Here is the input.
Amino acid sequence: MNLTITGHHLEVTPAIRGYVEEKLKRITRHFDNVIDVTVILSVEKLRQKAEVNVHVRGKDIYVEAIEEDMYAAVDVLADKLDRQILKHKEKSGDVHRGEASDLKRQNVDLG
Here is the structure.
């Protein structure tokens, strides 16, 4: 998994980088086929914004979170991303099971 963390109007400190890396380990627990992850952390006046774009085989998943604290934004971002990854995993798994059940409904000899 390639991980890129950038900051807009913000210096990405080792503490923030480590925190983001720790939170993003959750997605690899659920889904191994993550190719590339790009995280953008930005500050606009009092808003702390965290965005992530995850490239998995067959789809790009984009999530953003806006909070008053950067660590809180990363927490919310990780939760949203976790839900999206699980949803994508369920959908990609349902496709294969759906094909077999469609063939059974059509009374096609599988063997």
